[in-house]
């Protein structure tokens, strides 16, 4: 190992928040792995120096490169700690053959790679996977389908870092089977190996990871998850991934001590503290219901009579903009929403000052009774924290696209008078709303560009030539109790 590599390694460990370690390792570049269709995918093999005989393999499959920064961040820190790592470029990237078509070949290529690794004399048959962002998806594409020697899966997220326009345009309709290869929700989770996950409350994949955690535990799979106050790929999240990887892999591959603490560890925002639970969502959370009322109020008491609905008009030519929220990159997290709340296309309902701190921990939900002028429309709901100065900062939000092909449904009920009772699942959270602050609920027709605009027609969004404004009524009378439901722990 050269002096330069040592120095770079020490710098990487410092950046990732890992204890400094200068373990030596060798790199065998450009190792070709044959795929069933004749294409070869290239990988770099990192092997601890001086180790003899077969070892477990930590497989990392990514489209971002096999050397340079990807190698220093995702392979070398593990190799310095005695792990054998195979860093493979996915199909059509960085020397690997074929064409890069995201999501469509990761299951087949990943399974073929695992099978090939197990045949190598330097692999003892045990294969773990790790990574974040797109190469979190490459893990989910493999883990439910590979044979049980696969004993470890680390950080797992679904999705991609950028939109891939051609496929999205061609397959944008609801229920399109094109995306089924990227959907692990229908997998048999009973076949999964132990899983360790790290995410952030402002990571766009957090809701999916928490849902995966609950499904894994329900299937009897040993699983752990850490959720911090991070945006997707933020430095704090990367450091937590690195530390968690080492601890989890040392236990599963090297008979090290079991990870300490409860399986669920979440950061309580605005309280600067961590909470630990055995399950997610916390089973002891109480449901606090806040009702939408006339005049822009939010109250524990519902209306007891007839009141006129609140109204707004959504215009796709001037769409309601995104302010803050879970995103793949900055700006994200929390932002002052007052500029958006002043718009005519946003309804705002605000509660009284809280007499004491309110800890919202779990899945936030809303039921909004709406009548929309058009069959094609979006209902966007956001919870905000309003401080004594009047600043309104987003906490969680969610959206439901109304489409005659998916209405009615389990989450959209058609009332006798034609009003739709729309259940909107907001992002999960762990957040303290401090005493003296107020809860605020926004209702609007979208949040662009975070979510594609509803154009009000059945035309595919990528080729549509017409946009139609849509008038909304939000009902909140005794027969249509629109409301926000908060999980609260004490």
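Q: What amino acid sequence fits the structure above?
A:
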């Amino acid at each position: 190992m050269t002096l330069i590599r040592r120095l770079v390694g020490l710098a990487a460990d410092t950046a990732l928040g890992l204890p400094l370690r200068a373990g030596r390792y060798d790199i065998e570049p450009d190792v070709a792995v044959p795929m069933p269709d004749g294409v070869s995918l290239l990988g770099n093999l990192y092997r601890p120096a001086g180790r003899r005989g077969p070892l477990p393999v930590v497989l990392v499959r990514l489209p971002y490169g096999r050397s340079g920064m990807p190698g220093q961040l995702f392979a070398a820190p593990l190799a310095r700690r005695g792990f054998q790592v195979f860093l493979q470029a996915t199909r059509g990237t960085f020397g690997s053959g074929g064409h890069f078509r995201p999501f469509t070949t990761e299951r087949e290529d990943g399974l073929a790679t695992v099978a090939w690794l197990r045949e190598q004399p330097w692999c003892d048959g045990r294969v773990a996977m790790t990574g974040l962002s797109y190469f979190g998806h490459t893990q989910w594409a493999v883990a439910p389908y590979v044979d049980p020697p696969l004993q470890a899966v680390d950080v797992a997220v679904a999705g991609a870092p950028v939109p891939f326009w051609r496929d999205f345009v061609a397959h944008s309709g609801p229920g399109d089977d094109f995306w089924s290869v990227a959907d692990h929700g229908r997998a048999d989770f009973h076949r999964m190996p132990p899983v360790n996950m790290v995410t952030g409350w402002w990571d766009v994949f957090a809701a999916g990871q928490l849902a995966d955690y609950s499904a894994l535990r329900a299937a009897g799979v040993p699983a752990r998850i850490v959720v911090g106050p991070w945006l997707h790929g933020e430095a704090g999240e990367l450091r937590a991934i690195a530390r968690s990887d080492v601890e989890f892999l040392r236990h599963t591959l090297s008979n090290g001590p079991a990870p300490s603490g409860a399986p669920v560890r979440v950061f309580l925002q605005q309280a600067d503290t961590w909470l630990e639970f055995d399950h997610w969502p916390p089973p002891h959370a109480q449901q606090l219901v806040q009702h939408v009322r006339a005049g822009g109020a939010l109250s524990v008491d519902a209306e007891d009579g007839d009141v006129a609905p609140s109204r707004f008009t959504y215009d796709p030519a001037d769409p309601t903009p995104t302010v803050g929220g879970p995103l793949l990159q900055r700006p994200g997290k929390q932002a002052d929403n007052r500029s958006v709340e002043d718009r005519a296309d946003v309804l705002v309902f605000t509660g009284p000052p809280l007499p004491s701190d309110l800890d919202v921990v779990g899945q936030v939900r809303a039921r909004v009774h709406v009548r929309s002028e058009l069959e094609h429309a979006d209902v966007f709901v956001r919870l905000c924290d309003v401080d004594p100065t009047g600043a309104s900062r987003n906490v969680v939000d969610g959206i439901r696209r109304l489409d005659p092909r998916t209405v009615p449904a389990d989450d959209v009920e058609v009332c006798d008078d034609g009003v739709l009772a729309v259940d909107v699942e907001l992002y999960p959270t762990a957040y303290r709303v401090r005493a003296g602050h107020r809860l605020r609920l926004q209702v609007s027709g979208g949040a662009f560009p975070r979510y594609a605009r509803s154009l009000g027609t059945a035309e595919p969004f990528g080729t549509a030539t017409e946009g139609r404004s849509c008038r909304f009524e939000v009902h909140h009378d005794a027969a249509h109790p629109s409301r926000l439901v908060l999980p609260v722990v004490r």
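Q: And what stands out in the fold?
A: The chain has two domains: 3-277, 286-489.
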